[in-house]
């Protein structure tokens, strides 16, 4: 599969370039669509977008194998509240009417096939989505999804982990058109104690031999201190569970986003 530069890819790469020119790693907050409720989600997303370079919106899914308990519970709550795949894209469309920053949708493959791959891409493009983050799709196993995404102007992002072989890193890195998502630790998402780096520096050195896109790091980043560690070695910093925990505990999501964004300075 040959990587194709699309409208979405251009917007995402421009966001990374702007962050780098300002001496920082791009800040990429994640939030599950429809969390804590479909009605409250837009205000949460607005607060994150105020400080973000790119917003990652998760489609709620009943079997999110790569997500830890925090995001799993958020997905369950959003699904119980009626946030479907189509409703997620409608929420993104509402955000796009107010914001011009890039928005990427994180989804597992099953929700795409439940809607129908072409219809999903059409709806995503119509909503103003810039890219798709595909945690359970090996790029060599379903070329149709990536090709359809490119046809509709959407960038694609795949994941690598510390356990990825050099051959897998090369395959994934060359297939990404938005950014390459490097998982800092083996396992599922969620804030962790200690360093957020783990085996990241060696993994990134290998990834950069093949990647033609920026490399962002996620899993385990929970605050400004851990964001600062990652910002020293990565082009972007992804933070998710910390914001969901903040909402559950009644904290100010915007204030936390501002704090973590400051941590992305180099």
From TrEMBL:
Known catalytic reactions: (1S,2R)-1-C-(indol-3-yl)glycerol 3-phosphate + L-serine = D-glyceraldehyde 3-phosphate + L-tryptophan + H2O
Keyword vocabulary terms for this entry: Amino-acid biosynthesis, Aromatic amino acid biosynthesis, Lyase, Tryptophan biosynthesis
Active site: 56 (proton acceptor), 67 (proton acceptor)
EC number: 4.2.1.20
InterPro entries: Aldolase_TIM (IPR013785), RibuloseP-bd_barrel (IPR011060), Trp_synthase_alpha_AS (IPR018204), Trp_synthase_suA (IPR002028)
Biological pathway: Amino-acid biosynthesis; L-tryptophan biosynthesis; L-tryptophan from chorismate: step 5/5
GO CC terms, sorted: cytosol
Any one Gene Ontology molecular-function term assigned to this protein's record: tryptophan synthase activity
One Pfam family cited in the UniProt record for this chain: Trp_syntA
Superkingdom, taxonomy of origin: Bacteria
Recorded family membership: Belongs to the TrpA family.
Function recorded in the entry: The alpha subunit is responsible for the aldol cleavage of indoleglycerol phosphate to indole and glyceraldehyde 3-phosphate.
NCBIfam families named in the record: trpA (TIGR00262)
Binding partners and assembly: Tetramer of two alpha and two beta chains.
Protein name: Tryptophan synthase alpha chain
Organism: Deinococcus aerius
Gene name for this UniProt entry: trpA
């Amino acid at each position: 599969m040959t990587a194709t530069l699309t409208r979405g890819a251009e917007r995402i790469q421009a966001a990374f370039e702007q962050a780098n020119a300002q001496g920082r790693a791009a800040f990429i907050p994640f939030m599950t669509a429809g969390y804590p409720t479909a009605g409250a989600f837009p205000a949460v997303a607005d607060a994150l977008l105020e400080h973000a370079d790119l917003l990652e919106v998760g489609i709620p899914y009943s079997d999110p194998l790569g997500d830890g308990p925090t995001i799993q519970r958020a997905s369950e709550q959003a699904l119980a509240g009626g946030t479907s795949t189509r409703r997620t894209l409608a929420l993104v469309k509402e955000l796009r009417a107010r914001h011009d920053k890039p928005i990427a949708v994180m989804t597992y493959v099953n929700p795409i096939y439940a809607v129908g791959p072409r219809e999903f891409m059409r709806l995503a493009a119509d909503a103003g989505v810039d890219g798709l983050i595909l945690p359970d799709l090996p790029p060599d196993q379903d070329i149709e999804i990536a090709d359809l995404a490119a046809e509709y102007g959407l960038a694609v992002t795949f994941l690598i982990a510390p356990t990825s072989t050099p051959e897998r890193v090369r395959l994934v890195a060359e297939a990404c058109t938005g950014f390459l998502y490097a998982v800092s630790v083996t396992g599922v998402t969620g804030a962790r104690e200690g360093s957020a780096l783990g085996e990241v520096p060696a993994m990134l050195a290998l990834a950069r031999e093949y990647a033609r896109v920026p490399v962002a790091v996620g899993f385990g980043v929970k605050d400004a201190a851990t964001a600062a560690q990652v910002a020293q070695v990565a082009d972007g910093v992804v933070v998710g569970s910390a914001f969901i925990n903040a909402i559950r505990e009644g904290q100010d999501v915007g204030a936390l986003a501002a704090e973590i964004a400051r941590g992305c300075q180099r």
